[in-house]
Design a protein that fits this description.
With about 300 residues, the protein is of the alpha+beta class. The chain folds into two domains: about 10-205, no CATH class; about 220-300, Beta Barrel (OB fold (Dihydrolipoamide Acetyltransferase, E2P)), CATH 2.40.50. About 35% of the residues lie in helices and about 30% in strands. It is built from ten helices and ten strands. It has helices at about 20-45, 85-90, 105-125, 130-150, 150-160, 165-180, 180-185, 200, 210-215, 265, and strands at about 1-10, 45-60, 65-75, 190, 195, 220-230, 245, 255-260, 270-285, 285-300. The chain has a five-stranded antiparallel β-sheet with strand order 2-3-1-4-5. Strands 6-7-8-10-9 form a five-stranded mixed β-barrel. The termini are far apart.
């Protein structure tokens, strides 16, 4: 079954936007709408959103920049669900939906965009305090919760599970692309459907995006009394030339550093050790991989 719903974005710009900025913003919308379909599916048991695409109806490049879309969703249901379709989905199946009607698809799209914006805000600005971006995300999640009947905690869990590693980085890029016309014109306010995004909120979203800046930081974990297989060693240096495998974690070989009060001669020429370590891991794509271990305590038995 195909559902077509209206979706509109108005950038409150005061001058003409460049073609490049318009193209980039359309790429951001396309990515956000695709992800919105997946979020919609996750909010309703038995609903299957096979595709979710944004189809351009019109673009007005003069002040303000206005982009009008139809969002087309191909949906299916598990057997028997058609007779128990929630009211909010019944509205999606109506043949005529006014352009000014804020559909659940628009709300899902905004949740996706502001989840990406919150990631960018915290990553680039190294901020932990609540900001306008975070407050708007909270409000959108609350609205989606009311529409779907899913708890806010459940929606946050869906987002956290789906967006991590490479996928979270890609979402950050899509968000930066979406807001580019506003960033290029003094953080101009944006209106998505009936939802206003103030200039002060747009200002909190970084203007530029790079994979290097968005790379997730390494994580550390203390582990006690673990088996360590020594694969390389250097009696002259504690912080280089050592490598090990931690079988209880992974078969991958990682760098090892030896910290006082452990003496290098106490571990040299030993194939296996038991000790306390600090394991350093990095996010690569969607995977968390160990890359380094710090040996901080040595046990007599091995």
């Amino acid at each position: 079954m195909e559902i077509r719903v209206p979706h509109q974005v108005i950038y409150q710009t005061t001058g003409e936007s460049s073609i490049d900025d318009v193209i980039v913003s359309l790429m951001g919308t396309r990515a956000a709408v695709r992800e919105a379909g997946q979020l919609l599916e996750a909010c309703f048991d038995g609903l299957k959103v096979e595709t979710s695409t944004a189809q351009v109806r019109s673009i007005t490049q003069e002040s303000p920049l206005r982009e009008v879309f139809f969002v087309s969703l191909m949906v299916g249901f598990q057997d028997g669900l058609e007779t128990e379709i929630p009211e909010v989905l019944e509205k999606l199946f109506e043949s005529q939906i006014p352009d000014q009607y804020d559909t659940i698809v628009t709300v899902c799209t905004l949740v996706i965009l502001f989840y990406g914006a919150d990631f960018l805000y915290r990553k680039y600005l190294k901020a932990t305090e609540t900001a306008s971006v975070s407050k708007q995300l909270d409000g959108l999640i609350s609205e989606l919760s009311s529409l779907t009947g899913r708890s806010e905690d459940a929606i946050r869990a869906i987002l956290k599970e789906r967006y991590k590693g490479r996928r979270l980085v890609d979402l950050g890029r899509a968000t930066a692309n979406f807001f580019r016309p506003s960033k290029k014109q003094g953080n101009a306010a944006v209106k998505v459907g009936n939802t206003d995004v103030a200039s002060s909120t747009v200002a909190e979203i970084p203007a530029d995006f790079s994979d290097a800046a968005a790379k997730p930081e390494p994580t550390s974990e203390s582990m006690e009394d673990v088996l360590i297989e020594v694969h390389a060693q250097d009696v002259d240096y504690a912080n280089r030339g050592w490598a090990a495998v931690i079988p209880s974690v992974s078969s991958d070989r990682v760098r090892m550093k030896v910290f006082p009060p452990i003496k290098l001669e106490d571990v040299y020429n030993r194939g296996t050790l038991r000790g306390d370590i600090i394991l350093i891991s990095e996010t690569v794509g969607d995977e968390v991989r160990p890359v380094e271990c710090h040996l901080v305590r040595l046990y007599d038995d091995a």
